[in-house]
Amino acid sequence: MFDAHAHLQDPRLSGVFDELTHKAKTVQVTGVCCCGTTPDDWAATEAVANRPLPFVAVPGFGVHPWYVRFLPKDWRAQLEVYLDRNPVAVIGEIGLDGVMDDVPLALQEEVFVWQLELAERVRRPVVLHGARAWGRLVDLLKPYARRLPGFVAHGFGGSQEILRQMLNMGGYVSFAGTVCNANATKVRAAAKEIPDSQILVETDAPDLFPTGGHPIGTNANNKPLNHPGNLNVILREVAALRGVSPDELSDTTGANARRIFL
Q1: Where are the beta strands (DSSP E) in 148-249?
Q2: What is the pTM assigned to this prediction?
Q3: Taking Cα atoms as reference points, which of 20, 59, 17, 22 lies closest to residue 42?
Q4: Contact status, residue 242 vs residue 249, Cβ threshold 8 Å
Q5: Largest Cα–Cα distance in the chain?
Q6: What pLDDT does residue 19 have?
């Protein structure tokens, strides 16, 4: 199993990191894409990727739309340094967000487009965040999509039309713990209908804890912390929706992940 999106550098996981890696090994997680979100966590993301782990940790470096207001003047140069130093790294997590309404959309778009241009120039895949902003994200992505080595729509929650456009542009679409919620009809329909060649699964650890998962602790609000060991819960749910065995879906999503990340 390959966890297509997680944040193992998150400080909330630092005290349980050894337990986290053990649980991931126990359920046979073979790879994790570990995405940074801001220059403040890129060093920690790089450190995770360089640790001896029982799975491949592919680092991602990028600016998440929540943090575009707080960037140092040299963030672009810093990002290029991290990418140059980590030749298998992706650019992510980047994109647009419609949840945090106090983050100016124009600034989100400026930072997002610059990172897409960088990805095209240095030939790196991108990992996309589009919560409540998938439509505008697709509009900005279209000129670049076919010129990128690949892209992943992580934690997908868009409409059927957005899904169609993502697939037509050649993107991969990743499903997180939300798919385990019986009321998430839009997400579950997308997970059922997407072709084998473009589907991925993820935990988005330590967030998006799946129904039926096993917590590795709690956050400050006493909510359960997610971890890659819960990927098998998500995988089983998506496999049931698609009418295939978990082993078959693991092989399919694992092959897709290796194609985009490795």
Answers
A1: 151-153, 172-175, 199-201
A2: 0.98
A3: 59
A4: yes
A5: 50
A6: 98
Encoded tokens for 97: 């967000």
- One-letter identity of residue 45: T
Q: Residue 128 belongs to what H/E stretch?
A: strand 126-129
d(CA 179, CA 173): 13
**Residue 169: Cβ within 10 Å count:** 16
Residues 26-38 pLDDT 10s: 999 999 999 999 9
Positions of the chain with pLDDT under 70: none
Whether the upstream peptide bond of residue 206 has omega within 30° of 0, thus cis, is yes
Distances (CA, A) of 67 to 51, 107, 191: 26, 10, 29
Spell out the residues 6+ positions from residue 186 whose beta carbon is closer than 8 angstroms to its own: 157, 158, 159, 160
In 3D space, the residue among 165, 180, 174 whose CA is nearest the CA of residue 253 turns out to be 174
